Amino acid sequence: MRIHCKVVAIAVCFGVFLLLYFFGGNAADEPPLKEVAKEKHFPSFGNFEDIVLLKGAKQTNEEPQKPPKLIRKEPKLSSRRAENVIAKTRLKSEVGRPRSKVTLAEDVMHLAVVACGNRLDETLNMVKSALLFSMKKIKFHIFAEEDLAEQFERGFSQWPQTLSSRFHYSIYPITFSVGNADEWKKLFKPCAAQRLFLPVILKDVDSLLYVDTDVLFLRPMDDIWKFLKAFNSTQLAAMAPEHEIPKIGWYSRFARHPYYGVTGVNSGVMLMNLTRIRNTLFRNSMIASGLSWENLLHPLYQKYKNHITWGDQDLLNIIFHYNPECLYIFPCQWNYRPDHCMYGSNCKAAEEEGVSILHGNRGVYHDDKQPAFRVVYDAIHEYPFEENLFQSLFYPLQTKFLDTVNTLCGRIPQVFLKQIEKSMKAAYEKKVVRRVRPPHK
Question: Which GO annotations describe the biological process of this protein (predicted)?
């Protein structure tokens, strides 16, 4: 029985072994099953920008590996030794570099004048007065007839060589870019209308002071030049009132055209920001959209030519009547004329501080109607360059002024003498008085 059981067990084990061998062998002979490829799903984009955004987002998620920092130990230097090393390094780096010698635009003041006919001597005297007291260099823009151009050059060539470093000048022909040139030239005084075209002609000049030929500076031009910094964002020119008292002012009594403010303005001394003028559209009574300066001049003249008396000055008054926010008004002492004293003193600023710029209109430099003006003109004209200002200019002026105290404009001498004396003291201190350096300890 036991033997029979053992035989049965062995047979069963052998049968199981055969079955395992049969199924295992077939499985080993078959090739392995192929994997089914997974479908790649790409998101649909409405436009190219979505693709770029997705790409950028992917890049931001993956932070690039940062290279390891190299730590370099350097010996510490004492403060004095460190300064020496830095100084030597700067010297080496600057070797061979050209040094800039460009003069800043702010260091040069620009002054324009228009001279025609017999205005040569007046103009030279005006230029002389500007150079006597001014601190910065001046570039003179002289517009003159052809025959006067040579006389100007000859006149400047006779001045001392020491003055050549203090000013430059350019001489331009009389030109009018729009309208009839002969008609413009005869407007009011010969060539006076040329000043209207300065923003068009001097395109490379940012700011400019225009003066008539019969103007004299009794203080540095630098002081009136400072008014440019007082302009607000809309102001582009500065002038003084034509009169201080409306009841006796010309415009308030006789004008047949629009004018600025209550008494109008006088254009004999006119400070301008030419860049702003060129970039502004001016309101007017002809075109609602506004006109540029160059396009405004001729139609404005055509409309009012039968109603104006003082030529280009009247046109300027009309322009600033419609554009009052563009004008800065400086005190009467910067354009002091016979009108301020021949009807009684009516320029309070001049009484307090003295005349800054003397404007001898009405021909008063060349007749005996207002001798106080002529005395100042003659004193500057006769002053020899490089002589002592007090001995050769102020004292003779003071002496001659005694003969004018009984005249309408000469009865208050300090109006004419106060500012010029102050300017001479400043010029004298600049030229003679030198500060002594303290001795080294």
Answer: protein O-linked glycosylation via N-acetyl-galactosamine
- Look at phi and psi of residue 297 and say left if phi exceeds 0, alpha if psi is from -120 to 50, else beta: alpha
* Pairing of the two strands 137-144 and 167-172: parallel
Cα distance between residue 107 and residue 222, in whole Å: 10
What pLDDT, in 10s, does the model give residues 371-413? 999 999 999 999 999 899 999 999 999 999 999 999 999 999 9
| Mean pLDDT estimate for the chain | 81
24-54: b (≥16 Cβ within 10 Å) or e: eeeeeeeeeeeeeeeeeeeeeeeeeeeeeee
Note the pLDDT of residue 63: 42
Q: Which residues pair with 269 in a beta bridge?
A: 211
Nearest to 124 by CA among 144, 102, 98: 144
Summarize the confidence of residues 125-146 as an average pLDDT: 96
Model confidence band, residue 284 (pLDDT cutoffs 50, 70, 90): very high
Same-domain status, 212 and 268: yes
Q: Which long-range contacts does 362-365 make (Cβ < 8 Å, 24+ apart)?
A: 362/337, 362/338, 363/214, 364/338, 365/122, 365/214
pTM of the shown model: 0.75
Mind listing the pLDDT tens digit for each residue in 83-93? Answer: 443 333 333 33
In terms of pLDDT, which residue wins out, 336 or 14?
A: 336
For the sheet containing 207-211, what is the strand order? 167-172, 137-144, 108-115, 207-211, 265-273, 237-241, 327-329
Confidence at 170, pLDDT banded by 50, 70, 90 = very high
Domain range for 420: 338-431
- Give me the helix-helix angle, 413-431 and 371-382, nearest 10°: 20
Domain CATH code at residue 315: 3.90.550.10
* Separation of alpha carbons 59 and 87, rounded Å: 46
**Same domain, yes or no: 157 and 249:** yes
Residue that is last in its domain, among 330, 362, 393 = 330
- Domain stop point among 281, 314, 330: 330
In whole angstroms, give the CA distance from residue 275 to residue 265.
22
Asked if 210 contacts 238 with a C-beta cutoff of 8 angstroms, the reply is no
259 and 398 housed in the same domain? no
